[in-house]
Amino acid sequence: MTADRMNKKRGIYIHMPFCVQKCRYCAFLSFTAEGSPRKEYTDALEKEIKLRAALERDNGTDRPIDTIYIGGGTPSVMDISSMSEMVKTLKRSFDVKPDAEFTLEANPATLGRKDGVMLAKLQAYRFMGINRFSMGVQSMDNDRLHFLGRIHTAENVARDMDIIRRKGFDNVNLDLMFSVPGESGDDALSDLEKILSFKPEHISCYSLQIEEGTAFGRMAESGELTEVPDEEDRDTYHRICRRLRDAGYEHYEISNFARKGDDPDSPSPYRSRHNSLYWNMDEYIGLGLGASGFINGIRYKNTTDLGEYLAALGEGRLPVAEEHKNTAFDNISEAVFSGLRRSEGIRYEDAVRAYMEADDSGGDSTAATDAGAVFWEIFAEAEKEASEYAKRGLLVIDNEGLKLTEQGIDISNSIMSLFV
């Protein structure tokens, strides 16, 4: 393993695919918890954790874990005792740093109907080491929540946030969804004001994407539902960005905003450390149904079939369905694509380092004496079009690297595609 790889941060993502019900817009790998084999699933997860940790040790790639993220689905619907046993196995199997960021995704109204039940559940999460919550609020309008297929109300959000704060959790992300059909930009800003009243440390903002295979996708095909026009969507997005900046949040990634710390000139301490692993081309282990990982230059993805997942682990083998060894171009292309999502953009030095880490690069990171020249040699065919975007004020290109402007974010996919 190269020295650069040894210095990379490392995270663990665990997928819990169960929900109370499927939201009308949801295209994620999830299904209703009722009647699902949740206990069998967490038992299988424990087996996968042990197998993956043993493989890491055998390959000499086991290193301390900086972040853990339990996502879904709705992990907060899982039985506490099963979750606790799974986390114990995780910590026995991997070297988790004492200050690791440990995030749990949760939906309002799934943490307990009674205050006492919720307080006990939150206490159990604290014992597990969870120190960050990511809450799928989406809207603070009850009619809009019902339209989206959410099971909670605005009142549930207020109550849950009050109890979470009383229990001492001081790192909470709240999700906001905008451009919902029938919703105006003013409606979205009203939702945002109500979310801001909870003083969350982090806010993620996403425009609704209508996907094939979802209830909304079928409604769109039949003409029952019409997407919000792009121009209106982009106007709402920029209004949200301005409001959050005014409220003291750092816009550090296209969809993510972190409350500034005591030093306004330093990066916010509330940036998602786990998601930053993805954008920085760091390493992460994916565990659970359909989970993806990136370890030692290899990308892998677990099977998305629950029966196959349980059967594989019952037979004592990892449930990997796909595996790909990154080439040098894969590495630099992914580094640019993900790096351009960040407000800082991508530095030539970091992009070229990612290129040199691959086995087929023909060199090592010390070989790039002029990273900018190496970068544009690799992307020679993209340089002219990238320069045109820069002239139009959509992309900043300088001696250090490149980054999107706020206007460039509106066509980010077109700009990023130059480097794929």
Write up what this structure looks like:
The chain is α/β, with parallel strands linked by helices and 420 residues long. It folds into two domains: 3-279, pyruvate-formate lyase- activating enzyme (Alpha-Beta Horseshoe), CATH 3.80.30; 344-420, Orthogonal Bundle (Arc Repressor Mutant, subunit A). The chain has helices at 3-6, 38-59, 80-93, 115-128, 142-148, 154-166, 185-196, 215-222, 230-246, 273-279, 306-314, 328-339, 348-357, 371-378, 380-391, 406-409, 412-416, and strands spanning 10-16, 18-19, 31-32, 65-72, 96-106, 132-138, 172-178, 202-207, 249-253, 256-259, 283-287, 292-295, 298-302, 320-325, 346-347, 395-397, 401-404. It has a nine-stranded mixed β-sheet, with helices on both faces. The longest helix has 22 residues, at 38-59.
Class from secondary-structure proportions: alpha/beta
Report the uncertain regions: none
**Strand coverage percent:** 15-25%
Number of domains as seen in the coordinates: 2
Multimerization state: single chain
Q: Give the terminus-to-terminus CA distance.
A: 26 Å
Q: Please tell me how large the radius of gyration is.
A: 22 Å
Strand count, sense and barrel status of the largest sheet are:
9 strands, mixed
CATH class annotation of the largest domain: Alpha Beta
Give me the CATH architecture of the largest domain, please.
Alpha-Beta Horseshoe
**Count of DSSP E strands?**
17
At the fourth CATH level, what is the homologous superfamily of the largest domain? tm_1862 like domain
The helical percent reads 40-55%
Shape annotation: globular
Q: Tell me the CATH topology of the largest domain.
A: pyruvate-formate lyase- activating enzyme
